Every structure is written in structure tokens, then in C-alpha cells.
Amino acid sequence: MRELGIDLAQVRTFFVEDPEQAFVLIRVPVDAADHWADLLGVPARRCYVSDGNAAANVARTGQPLSAVIAAKTPDPGSVMAGDFGEILTALFLAASAHPADVYDPKKWRLKQDRTKPAPYSDVVQLILPEWPKSSPNDRLVCAEVKTKSTDGKSTPIASAIADSRKDREGRLLKTLVWLRERAIGEDLGTVGLDHIERFLKAIDHPPAARDFRAVAIVCSRLLNVEIEDVKTPPEDECTLIVISVPDLKNNYEALYTAIAASVA
């Protein structure tokens, strides 16, 4: 996550844990969310395209930087909401692991179609505290993320728990194979082929933990209804994390406005 140019210690202050629940409940303070657009515009832009690749595409095509960024980011709607939830989850998980280095392939850069979600597992992070040497302390973190910003019939908590099972039953492996193929053909930033193969060729390395997360990003005004009668999954399956964000729709739209404005 280094190449995002963000202070993960500061990011950690955005998330306040409520200890009264059987699952992990995170409440984002209003004043923190109000500053996201100012603080996260450039880092969020880098989730979609590195500064180097953006500059190279400007030089190659003759298009302005604003057009290069617009060609990578989603339009307002469900995909934008989903991408926001995934990026927020990636930042939360990385900040929680800090000061350990977190290698995140930033799957939003690898989309074939900006109007659709990135394929396979939502968020995958590699924690390799002794790299370039592999160790028994290495961890592979995989999160299934569901976002709910407006009223509706969706059930983000139950859906995140159910779809996390797909990661455990094979989707994570497919994701790693896909990432390996992409790493052979293109630059994944701070994530290299050797990082991915550390987990794909597990027999050549010490055993590593695989931690699964089911994450629901929920607008704070909807929270009480959504967490009513929550059935927490067994600890050996996945960890349930619910992140309550004030005025979620306006805040994620403000962030994407800041992404577009950051080209100045």
C-alpha cells in the first residue's frame, strides 16, 4: 500500500471499534468522513492507476490526464458504491495491519471494464513481514465486501457471509491464479510475481495463515436495522466486520469527485 502515498496510522483513526458487539463493528466518526474527499482523493486515484502509468498514457495518447483518469473510474451507481466499499475495506485492513507492510495488488487497476466490478475475490492482501524471505508469520487476507448506502431489500451482512464461503471454497485460489497471469503480463506495482507465488507454491514455503473476512459497509442511518438479529459466523470460517459510514452515498460520491479534481 506504500505507493498510495497515505499515512496508514492516520487512516486507522478513521475507524472506531464498538466493543459491545459479538462481531467487529466499526463506526466512522462524522468529522472523519467529512475529510475523506480532501485526504483520499489522490490515494484513491492511485488505486485505479499509478502515477507512472497515468503519465505514460497521457504521453502515448495525447489525451489530458483528466481523460485518462475518467477512463479508469466508474460512473455513479452501484459499481461506484461497490468499488468504494472495497477500497475502504482495503484501507481499513491495511491500517489494522500497520506497521506491517501490506502488499495489495489493487485489483481496480486490473479491470477489463470500468463499468463492472473487478473479477474474483474482492480484496486480497499479502502480509509478508520478513520478505524477501518467507516465514510462518506470512498471512493471506481475503475479504468479501458488500455495500449498502440507500434503502432497499439488499442484505449486505448475510450476503457478505454467504459469499465469503465462495472464497474459502475455491474463489481465492482462482483469484491468485488470475493475479499470477496478470503479473506475468504487466506491472502490478509493489506486488510482484514472487509475492503471489509464495502462496500459490505453498509446498516450497513455511505454512501461512489464510484469514477470511466478510465485510459489510453500511450507511449509519441503516445500521440498527441491518445488525438486528445478526448471526455471527464461526471464528474458524471468517470474521464478520461491519463498518458504519455516515451519509455513505454522499461521501462516496464526494470521494470520486475528489478523484476527478485531483488531476489538477
TrEMBL record:
Pfam families: HamA (PF08878). Residues 32-258 form the Anti-bacteriophage protein A/HamA C-terminal domain. InterPro entries: AbpA_HamA_C. It comes from the Bacteria. This is DUF1837 domain-containing protein.
